[in-house]
């Protein structure tokens, strides 16, 4: 039996963190497998993915769901995948929820992931939040958490690996971490319950290419985690409905010609540099 990692990582920090955590488990003799849905059209583009999940995940003794936090919530693609997991009927399997975030507010992400995974018949035994570079600030003068994850995050992952192995070995019972996942102050939890990711981001999903400047280099095609771009008739174009854009800004950061129009970047620049970006304390932690 194996531990399966499900990962979505537009800018790579969640993937690195998940790989780190997986190595820690493997060093303790646990067999692991990883499904990375980033740029994977079988997951990103298809409406019904329950069957794909069923065959890809297979038999497992623990599930680790890894995603970044966007607008205080679990990123929407991973939340959708959680809700499409094949429902467990025979015996509940322990699950771990792992988020990386820019340190600003994790609020309801672990809580809503816990709720989702519980509804599919798993036991959410712990939530892990890991501070990482705030990727929206990657090309800003003032970058948030540029050096993270660091040593502290390694310690948090090591603590989590210890707990996971104890549950797998039957030394500790698999207990639902429901209460522990409600760690954010109540006003913030309330605010982000009202303000969904779509409410915060929806109106900015208007990424476009300035064709006067675009040199056709294709960097945006390679960088986009949800495959919004393609080269059609020798021209790089947006090929998906703008609503599928997650505003990750990877296209913007990678376009050296400055041809990407990204309406949310300037909003983020203002929000993250005028005192709005108060960092959480602790920045990285295990909740169980
Ligand atoms: C559109 C967008 C929204 C984000 N919203 C938040 C947020 O609300 N709070 C936060 O602390 N970090 C936020 N971040 C930062 C990411 O959660 C963080 O950089 C994460 O580690 C990215 O993971 P990845 O490298 O796997 O994509 C946001 C990043 C993007 C691109
Ligand atoms: S990265 Fe910029 S210049 Fe290159 S193809 Fe995309 S939009 Fe055009
Ligand atoms: S179009 Fe740009 S901002 Fe939107 S998902 Fe793709 S890379 Fe991210």
From TrEMBL:
Leader sequence residues: none
UniProtKB keywords: Iron, Iron-sulfur, Metal-binding
Recorded superkingdom: Bacteria
Originating species: Johnsonella ignava ATCC 51276
Protein name per UniProt: 4Fe-4S ferredoxin-type domain-containing protein
GO MF, one example: iron-sulfur cluster binding
PROSITE patterns on file: 4FE4S_FER_1, 4FE4S_FER_2
Residue ranges of domain 4Fe-4S ferredoxin-type in the record: 205-234, 236-265
Pfam families xrefs: Fer4_6 (PF12837)
InterPro entries, per the entry: 4Fe4S_Fe-S-bd, 4Fe4S_Fe_S_CS, Flavoprotein-like_sf
